[in-house]
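Fresh eyes needed here. Have a critical look at this protein's tokenised backbone.
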Amino acid sequence: MTLIRCVITDDEPFARKGMQKYVEQTGFLELKAVCENALQLAEVLNTETIDLLLLDIEMPYLNGVDFLRNRENAPKVIFTTAFENYALQGYELDVLDYLLKPVSFERFTKAVNKAYDYFKTRWENPPQSYFFIKSGNKLEKLFFSDILFAEAMENYVAIYTPDKKLITHSTLKSFQQQLPVNQFVQTHKSYIVNMQQINSIEGNLLHIGKYRVAVSKYLKDQVFEKILHNKLLKK
């Protein structure tokens, strides 16, 4: 059985201890870290591959909702909170479940079983390796592995491959939602890059074939951590 790698984040020691006990009693969960706040959690996510967050909402520095809204390609989340008024935000952020404290083991089990079903479906039915985009008057078949990078052009996206450039009517955000999150990273408000196609890094530039793609200074640390952690630089 494949284990679901999870992180507990809560500013209350008693809540952390209780949640850790629940996780340790659940055979399909692997606890990778226990964090006191969202800042510690961000450090873990920059160095570890995590599937599931057991995330408190009301925390110092940055609450769980704001953390999730501002985190690119965040893991799936089960919110744990003493406050009912965040349920709508949880729904909008597509979290797996919303647990009200104090959390019983029975309710915890129901939530993590939902997570298990979600990941089991994804792992047993991996996404296909290609998709179709409309470019001009044609539907073009595009393999994820062939994409070098994508560039936003107002209401269009230009997709660069080794042998052609395709332009489709889309926003960059909508286009990104069709891509595997473990293979692509947004480096700038105008660019999404296939990490498997990166030849080298020079300053704030990624060398991809004959192209040079910029990395925003605001995303630099997060982007480089993801690229280097995944070890996907092209040989």
